[in-house]
Design goal:
Oligomer: heterodimer
Number of helices of chain A: 8
Shape of chain B: globular
Helix content of chain A: 40-55%
Strand order of the largest sheet of chain A: 2-1-3-4
Number of helices of chain B: 22
Radius of gyration of chain A: 18 Å
Order of helices and strands of chain A: HHHHHEHHEEEH
Number of strands of chain B: 16
Structural class of chain B: alpha/beta
Distance between the termini of chain A: 37 Å
Strand order of the largest sheet of chain B: 2-1-3-4-5
Largest sheet of chain B: 5 strands, mixed
Radius of gyration of chain B: 24 Å
Chain lengths: 168, 512
């Protein structure tokens, strides 16, 4: 955990947000852990070691227990990512209509691998398995918005505005 | 008189611009001074037509689709409401063969009503099931579910009535109804479509179940990949409390719980662990969740569609429901037609339909126009079926007999450009990605499976590797705690048996 802390020092303001969230939380019982993790990540973008420590204290759990939960679920990220998470469905129904080709286009045009942020910090692409949009794939999700029938051209049209500082 | 214009609002319609279509229509109504109003619905599940705009007419609703936001202006080009003369008209929606030829019970209201309007729900037959249940004893409700022949629609197809009876008979100060809305199988969207188009039906089904087994608390475990569904359910639950379907007066309430992107949490014991705030690790069974489930209490865990079907069974009678289907596959199954298909969407039909009918009569062949080569039925753990198996009746028993399964009813079509070797490799890869890690066959076997299939795809000693792969599949099947490891061999074996050339295997190796 310590090496992560050096790599991604906690932002004091972020921890203050976490403290306030925990103080206002309707419950800190064990079954409130996932909702709390969702809320903290929604507000500060990721679950830092410092945040995990605060959450563990509030829920009367060990840091190891909270860390175990955080790292089990694909939704949670322990390091700050790009400003926009662009998730591509890579499951069978989208495979049947070209999501592998779309993914190759995304990686090439952005010059990044999965989970890697673009140099401007604007976008990272992630593999997901199914948005339940299986008759109108390929499907991608940007933030809380889902887009169907995404061609490489449509991908560019959706992603380019997320990178105002890049001329590409 | 004000004419109603219906704009769908489910995830698929939304993903194709339905919200922008609504805005454009509202603008057109204002600009042209039309006596019309917009109603947001869920979706009919005729997905190739989305966004499908419908307009009231004396003969029924006329459909126009697909309509992109920028095409709305043309729909109102002459300053009047569009008619069947418009090139995008698909005529009377109820008469579209894809919809007309279905047997919709669970999805009878989908796309017809405003999903958040309690009065719409009641006007279309909603609420009758819970009324019947309240006039019956709990045992009578359970007997009806038993007599209907309903089996779990999540994939395992366990007889629902037996589960209800077990939870009912198990003593407990607190009992739970847990709705498994972690619809993770690729190619499935029926749970989502129901929750976004007719959420009160699920809530009513849970209330019926609660009354039957004596539960006071319910939870809907919803996957986080469904943000639209989350919004609809949040509002619907609040309304259900206002109208007394839930809350103190009803003696039953439901909380909505958001998953966090783990496929294995669709497995019922992993789901319970997740609800308790832990890693989604599978629990050994027994004890069955019906006896010791959430927080160790008797818990009825069911898929969305199973709970929803209870409303139909109570309202229409068990006999009527059991009158559909064949053998021990009673009632209707919502098949979800997706992947490379021209007309994809939801097809609710009695068991016994064939894939040929689904893909060709309903689906109209592939979207690409190329010949279909393989169809995966039942999600990522289901078999890939070659053309000669497309005549097998879609029913639990007949599918088991050919080494396949219906699962949750997902049907994913692939055309002849598919690399079946890549599909076999993906099956193992997905298992490795989603394994909870509790049991060795699944955690390590899946990784070994990926390596073996990669070697075979490269043509490296495929026959020698096949022997190891067979043993590995057997170990996964017999030695895994849950269906993820236990069923991953199914798609892999189907590729070995029906598409051996993709793994560089001579046909005679397979037939011997």
């Amino acid at each position: 955990m310590d090496d992560r802390q050096t790599e991604h020092p906690d932002h004091g303001d972020d921890l203050e947000i976490v403290r306030r969230l925990l103080a206002d939380a309707p419950s800190t019982a064990p079954d409130a852990l996932l909702p709390l993790l969702h809320e903290v990540q929604r507000r500060v973008g990721h679950l830092s070691p410092g945040a995990i420590r605060l959450i563990a204290d509030a829920c009367n759990l060990s840091r190891a227990e909270v860390h175990g939960v955080v790292t089990f679920y694909h939704d949670f990220q322990t390091a700050p990512g790009a400003r926009h998470r662009v998730q591509l469905c890579m499951a069978e129904a989208c495979q049947a209509v070209g999501c592998r080709e779309l993914a190759a286009h995304a990686r090439e045009s952005l010059g990044v691998e999965w989970q890697e942020a673009t140099p401007d910090g604007a976008v990272q692409i992630e593999q997901m398995y199914c948005f339940g949009n299986c008759a109108t794939g390929p499907t991608i999700r940007i933030g809380d918005r889902i887009h169907g029938r995404v061609t490489p051209e449509r991908f560019d049209a959706l992603v380019t505005p997320l990178r105002p500082e890049s001329s590409a | 008189m004000t004419t109603r214009i219906y704009v769908p609002g489910d995830t698929t319609a939304w993903s194709l611009g339905a919200d922008e279509v609504e805005t454009a229509i509202v603008n057109a109504i204002t600009n042209h001074g039309l006596a019309a109003e917009v109603v947001r619905t869920g979706s009919r599940g005729l997905y190739w037509l989305e966004p499908l705009v419908e307009v009231d007419s004396p003969d029924g609703r006329i459909g126009f689709g697909p309509i992109a936001p920028e095409e709305v202006a043309d729909l109102f080009a002459d300053g009047k409401l569009p008619t069947t003369a418009h090139p995008r008209s698909v005529g009377i929606v109820a008469e579209i063969p894809f919809l007309r030829d279905q047997q919709r019970l669970t999805f009878r209201r989908a796309g017809l009503i405003d999903p958040l309007s309690w009065s719409d729900y009641q006007a279309h037959g909603g609420g009758e099931g819970i009324r019947q249940a309240r006039e019956s004893t709990p045992q009578q409700v359970i007997d009806a579910v038993m007599a209907s022949g309903l089996r779990g629609r999540g994939g395992a197809a366990f007889p629902a009535g037996i589960k209800w009876q077990t939870v009912h008979d198990t003593p407990g100060d607190v009992k739970y109804i847990v709705c498994n809305a972690d619809e993770g199988d690729s190619g499935t969207f029926a749970d989502r479509l129901l929750m976004e188009s007719d959420p009160f039906q699920l809530i009513e089904g849970m209330a019926i179940a609660a009354r039957a087994v004596g539960a006071s608390q319910g939870v809907i475990y919803l996957r986080s990949e469904y943000p639209r569904t989350h919004a609809v359910l949040t509002t619907a639950l609040a309304t259900a409390r206002e109208v007394g379907l839930l809350g103190a007066g009803a003696g039953f309430d439901i909380t909505l719980f958001l998953g966090a992107g783990s496929y294995i949490c669709g497995e019922e014991t992993a789901l319970l662990e997740s609800l308790e705030g832990k890693r989604g690790m599978v629990r050994p069974k027994p004890p069955l969740p019906a006896r010791e489930g959430l927080h160790g209490k008797p818990t009825l865990v069911h898929n969305v569609l199973t709970l929803a079907a209870a409303t139909t069974i109570l309202a229409d009678g068990a006999d009527q429901y059991a009158g559909h289907g064949l053998d021990r596959s009673r009632g209707t199954m919502p098949f979800q037609l997706g992947g490379n298909v021209a007309r994809g969407g939801l097809v609710e039909h009695a068991f016994g339909l064939t894939l040929d009918a689904l893909i060709h009569d309903f689906g109209g062949g592939t979207r690409s126009g190329r010949p279909a080569r393989a169809v995966q039925v039942g999600g990522p753990l289901g078999a890939y079926l070659p053309a000669e198996q497309w005549v097998t009746p879609l029913a639990y028993e007949s599918y088991l007999a050919i080494g396949a399964m219906l699962g949750h009813g997902g049907v994913v079509v692939f055309d002849d450009t598919v690399d079946m070797g890549a599909q076999a490799e993906f099956a193992m890869q997905f298992c490795a990605h989603e394994s909870c890690g509790k049991c060795t066959p699944c955690r390590i076997g899946s990784v070994r499976g990926v390596e073996l299939i990669q070697q075979m795809r490269r043509g490296e000693e495929p026959e020698r590797h096949l022997a190891v792969l067979h043993e590995l599949c057997e170990t996964l099947e017999l030695g895994s705690l849950c269906a993820l490891g236990g069923l991953t061999p199914m798609p892999v074996r189907s590729v070995i048996n029906h598409f051996p050339e993709a793994l560089h295997l001579p046909a005679e190796v397979i037939s011997s």
